[in-house]
Amino acid sequence: MDIQTLRTQHPDHWKKACAIRVLTLDAVAAANSGHSGMPMGMADVATVLFEKHLNFDPTVPKWPNRDRFILSAGHGSMLIYSLLHLTGYADMTLDQIRNFRQWGAITAGHPEYGHADGVETTTGPLGQGIANAVGFAMAEESLRARWGAKVMDHFTYVIAGDGCLMEGVSQEAIGIAGRHKLSRLIVLWDNNGITIDGKVSLSDITDQKARFAASGWDVFECDGHDPVDIDRAITAAKASPRPAMVACATHIALGSSAQDTSKGHGALTDAKLIADTRAAYGWDHGPFEIPADVRAAWAAIGARGRATREAWEARLATLSPAKQAEFARIFAGEAPAKLAGAIRALKKQAAADAPKLATRSASEKVLAVVNPIMPETIAGSADLTGSNNTKTADLGVFDVDNRKGRYVYWGIREHGMAAAMNGMALHGGVRPYSGTFMAFTDYARPSMRLSALMGVPVVYVMTHDSIGLGEDGPTHQPVEHLAISRATPNTLVIRPADLVEVAEAWEVALTQTSTPTVLALSRQNLPAVRKTHTAQNMVARGAYVLAEAEGKRQVILMATGSEVEIALKAREMLQAEGIGTRVVSMPSMELFAQQDEAWRKKVLPAGPVRIAIEAGVRQGWDRWLLGERGREAKADFVGMSSFGASAPYDRLFREFGITAEATVAKAKALL
Amino acid sequence: MDIQTLRTQHPDHWKKACAIRVLTLDAVAAANSGHSGMPMGMADVATVLFEKHLNFDPTVPKWPNRDRFILSAGHGSMLIYSLLHLTGYADMTLDQIRNFRQWGAITAGHPEYGHADGVETTTGPLGQGIANAVGFAMAEESLRARWGAKVMDHFTYVIAGDGCLMEGVSQEAIGIAGRHKLSRLIVLWDNNGITIDGKVSLSDITDQKARFAASGWDVFECDGHDPVDIDRAITAAKASPRPAMVACATHIALGSSAQDTSKGHGALTDAKLIADTRAAYGWDHGPFEIPADVRAAWAAIGARGRATREAWEARLATLSPAKQAEFARIFAGEAPAKLAGAIRALKKQAAADAPKLATRSASEKVLAVVNPIMPETIAGSADLTGSNNTKTADLGVFDVDNRKGRYVYWGIREHGMAAAMNGMALHGGVRPYSGTFMAFTDYARPSMRLSALMGVPVVYVMTHDSIGLGEDGPTHQPVEHLAISRATPNTLVIRPADLVEVAEAWEVALTQTSTPTVLALSRQNLPAVRKTHTAQNMVARGAYVLAEAEGKRQVILMATGSEVEIALKAREMLQAEGIGTRVVSMPSMELFAQQDEAWRKKVLPAGPVRIAIEAGVRQGWDRWLLGERGREAKADFVGMSSFGASAPYDRLFREFGITAEATVAKAKALL
Helical H runs in B354-431? Predict the structure, then answer.
């Protein structure tokens, strides 16, 4: 539908959509950067969605049963900022719009979770939003099954562009959604045929409708500028028993001289272009000026959801007080009160039993205790269930006919899994953890970074955490992945050494509220190293003295996970030669860095020779070996400086020199 | 087709395929680990492929015009090891098979490029092989167009499993191949319906044939055990004008009690199971024993390609000596002799002009000189052509009707792009470089790791390398990505500071033969810092003294890329206070680490206070700040310890404290 027809046939709609378009033009011009074309192209679809379908209430933005709206094509951030402003989200003032992309504004270049109410997830890295949305929809299905439709019953809407659909993660997301018949998930595809480099056909000829249908989606089409047609298509999509994709035929940068071109994708800042576009729109108001009638029309849209929200609150109030408290707890992301006691009991038993276990198996033992008392956990694995040890007996399998099941067979889709976990955690009411091999964090990296950037407390159960996995060889052996995870801001990396430390690690991970955790767990069996029970969670201190030096303290050995055993052996050998040696277990550098200086100095006093032992690269260790300001100690490292190899694991440790003998030699060389 | 029918109707074929199956059983049993089911399931398809279609010659394994065979489902490594052994690759002895997955053997758990002849690429991380194959096929198309079919004219065959097809990267690969009508690419899908966790239907209901067809592939089917049907399907696939996928219906772990189960995916080591399976096969030979008639039959298959290879050599010999030398050069991956002179001339001019330029623009200027003298380069970008500055005027666009074009519009597919670059480099005859934003190295990580593990000299042009990109905000601002790249073994990271350093960086990158390079380039303009011409490539030294201290040397400032400017300003301020300050430009830590100790001590003598300045995380710097054994210097760091933010870039540098003033303050605090 062209602009003239639209203005004539749907004047009220046109003005509302136009408000989005001109706010976009004005904000991008003020910032002298940004993306104009997408909001200009999708304004009609978004207007119809917000006016006729989306359940939301700007006065209570985080109402748990709201529909979720996810702008997967996050570069078009002015679309969502305009919508939030026009519908009356209190924090999205006109000043924020004027300060688009400026320091301190909540109107970041791409929508950032936690900045503005109504932004459900951080988008911009393409494909993430659509994959998050799968997690949102799964969380909704799970909660609806377990709490009933009167408490949880909503849709998740996504606006996705060609970029989102070209990224591989979108295929993983489409596959998961199709398999699980997530009928409350609706993707509105901004089918404008343009990418940054030019026409989509420069790089892709995929029939997207056929592609979605191939994975079990229902597919609809509409003229993305005709409000009646848009409404019809969304209505049909909502009625579909499968996830639905609506191909919205749109014109990028509608009405400007850059319409239907890649120039229109970016920042349209030329004054004449903007003036001409306003004229084409018949919009004769000044920059950032929204006439009263349009404001009122949008305000009415914003007010639409209040009654629905209040009705939901009334329904929630009919639950028993205990149920209401539980609902509040899981949406607040608080661990249950009994978690601490359960972990303590498990630790006590573990210290007494001192089992020889792979830490991945230890993790399963802890989860067997945790899952029954934390019904909010949703678990899974990227097709490595038996290897990641993430499935406990009580969980049940999440499936089309068992939405109460809490275990997800993600398939061979690490990236989609991580993105969906982010979506689940952002939805609230569930606490996701899932696993793959540590080396394949690579596949999930873009979403793991977003976990950290958004501060969502998901748990990545990364097993097979070193050359200790043995024969599968270097493709499967992480070497740099601990360093990679540690290099990422706001990421908690924990590499526990035995069952006691694993229990402590899980307690730390499950009580996080704004930080994701990477648990690095061994494939191979490890001896117990914590055989004396302490009520205190020592992993929470990041590092602690596991074995004190006898006699004069000349050497401090630091290690994590499977290498703590080596440190203890090396200590025995050094002590036998009269060299006083302390062993520090350092399951988490991040937690250690958060301790006060007194603790850090107590654990790592300046002076003694320091050797760190970890079957990964050295990068990241120097801070603790050498001291942040330097000159604290002579130091050396026992670990990897190359990729691994395929062989039985004990042979690999020997060949790569990660042994007690090598540790002793390096320590003595520095004494 | 069941075993009994197969044995009866195709006894000769059956015995050949059986040899693969029993070698697999025997090797996995000996290793007590590995994956039996896939080779047992795909033995018939592979036998027909090698017997009837694949052009190869075990006596000259790297013959450039051979067909390429890629086992994307790399866990089934015994399939390819068996094939290589049976067809007569000299290095693949029976002892190597007996030593499957043992230290020092070329029969690693997953096929490793560079270990065994005939292994064209490292596979195991799923989806990589099929995505590599796209690059192989593109290289073939490009070379065929430019050198003629008499020199280059071959197919690329892939065996892919459900895991490969579930990984998102496969969608990117399928999209690229479909768009470019890569008709010489044939994917044989091992459609066995089983993954590690159970049936494929646990996690996926995708109609793979429809999915491939949606992206422009031709799709075929066959009974993956019936040699006649397999032959028919492959023959049809070869004749197709589009890339072809053959859905091969197979039984995982055929003939064993684990057939058609997820148990069959892994290591079948039970003695009774193996004995029963041998009996079902009618194979009454001992472990690792191949009867003479079967050996002879396979030897004949191995001998099949010799004449074809010799005919090709004869055709190649008809080229002019200069052409032959050029062909040899590009397949050896050697830079042309005139590269050095061209770079030197450019550097001289740049030192004289001292332009203020973003290093991404500087890179384009260098490429404008390089590309005309290196016809083997193939360039591209993941839909950021104008931002990555990877396209120079002379390249032309690689397209269906212009296979000579050397610029690829990869689309929004960083992962597929990186994997295809690996494939191109492995194919030989072309030297790929391509770009995206530095932050989106995350998307390409699994393939970038494989570049390093395989040692393929691709070049990643990663622009927008810090918060210096400004308003796009934290999703687009790399913070940890330099550390991530540096943590990866065998990866050269270069972050040049101006046009001269960019020219030197490209010379280093383009003369690598077994190491990939990550070029980190700025979005923002930077002043020239190398204004005096030196013939020597200083970037190749890793770090060097850019500005010497005047008076007593009390401080050494180290910086890379855009922060060298800040170091120079801080030096001025410190010198003004009488504090002698050296500035070290350190474009590459890896290259610096490779220098002899004399150079390293000359550049970084012990004693003076050291401050490093880089708009990324500190991880990786401590080695140079503190000395590897510690105690070399007091030191501090000016950089990032959190994610970035959305604002103009100068504001960001100020807000995050990456300034000359902050540098001076930190230096003085340590003096």
Answer: 359-373, 385-388, 414-427
Answer yes or no: pTM beyond 0.90.
Answer: yes
- Rg of chain B over Cα atoms, rounded to whole angstroms, equals 28
Q: Quick one: chain B helix, strand, coil %, rounded to 5? A: 45, 15, 40
Neighbours of B338 (CB within 10 A): 10
Confidence class of residue B627 from pLDDT cuts 50, 70 and 90?
Answer: confident
Residue B443: in which H helix or E strand, if any? helix B441-454
Enumerate the known binding-site residues of A for Mg(2+): 162, 192, 194
User: Cβ atoms within 10 A of the Cβ of A209, count?
Assistant: 18
Q: Which amino acid is at A23?
A: L
B residues 382-411 lying closer than 8 A (beta carbon) to A: 383-387, 409-411
For residue A630, the model assigns a pLDDT of 63
CA distance A103 to chain B (A): 5
Contacts of B204 in chain A (CB under 8 A): 175, 179, 215, 411
- Among A466, A496, A520, which Cα is nearest to A650's? A466
Mean pLDDT of B325-336: 98
Q: What angle do CA B269, B271, B276 make, to 5 degrees?
A: 110
**What string of DSSP letters covers B380-402?**
EESS-HHHHT---TTS-B-BTTB
Q: Catalytic one among A414, A563, A614, A632?
A: A414
Lookup: tokens for A220? 């609809």
Question: Edge-to-edge strands of the sheet including A635-638?
Answer: A544-547, A580-585, A553-559, A609-613, A635-638
pLDDT, tens digit (0-9, with 9 covering 90-100), for B248-293: 999 999 999 999 999 999 999 999 999 999 999 999 999 999 999 9
What distance in Å separates the CA atoms of residue B191 and residue B247, rounded to the nearest whole number? 6
Question: DSSP class of residue A541?
Answer: G
Residue in chain B nearest A200 by alpha carbon: B411
Radius of gyration of chain A from Cα atoms? 28
The CA distance from A170 to A127, in Å, is 5
What's the pLDDT at B634? Answer: 87
Residues of A (94-153) whose Cβ lies below 8 Å from B: 101-105, 108-110, 112, 122-126
CA distances (Å), A112 to each of A576, B472, B661, in order?
A: 57, 11, 30
Instruction: Identify whether A364 is a catalytic site residue.
Output: no
Q: Evaluate whether B371 touches B377 at the Cβ level (below 8 Å).
A: yes
Contact B168, B138 (CB under 8 A): no
- Tell me, what's the pLDDT at B506? 98
A489 with B439: Cβ contact below 8 A: no
Full strand arrangement of the beta sheet holding A407-409: A407-409, A377-381, A431-437, A459-463, A517-521, A492-494
Contacts 24+ apart (CB under 8 A), B393-397: B393/B368, B394/B368, B395/B371
Q: Which two tokens stand for residue B527?
A: 């002043």
* pLDDT tops 90 at residue A626: no
Looking up tokens 């194979």, which residue turns up? B283
Environment class of residue B332 by beta-carbon count within 10 Å: exposed (0-12), middle (13-18) or buried (19+)? Answer: exposed
What DSSP assignment string belongs to B241-279?
SS-EEEEEE--TTTTSTTTTSGGGGS----HHHHHHHHH
User: Do B585 and B556 meet the contact criterion of CB atoms below 8 Å apart?
Assistant: no
Chain-chain contact of B206 with A215 (C-beta, under 8 angstroms): yes
pLDDT tens column, A576-614 = 999 999 999 999 999 999 999 999 999 999 889 999 999
Q: At what angle do helices B359-373 and B338-353 cross, to 10 degrees?
A: 150
Task: Report all structural domains of chain A as residue ranges with CATH numbers, in order of start.
Answer: 3-311 (3.40.50.970), 337-520 (3.40.50.970), 542-670 (3.40.50.920)
Residue B160, SS3 per DSSP: strand
Rounded Cα–Cα distance for residues A339 and A336 (Å):
6
d(CA A572, CA A570): 5
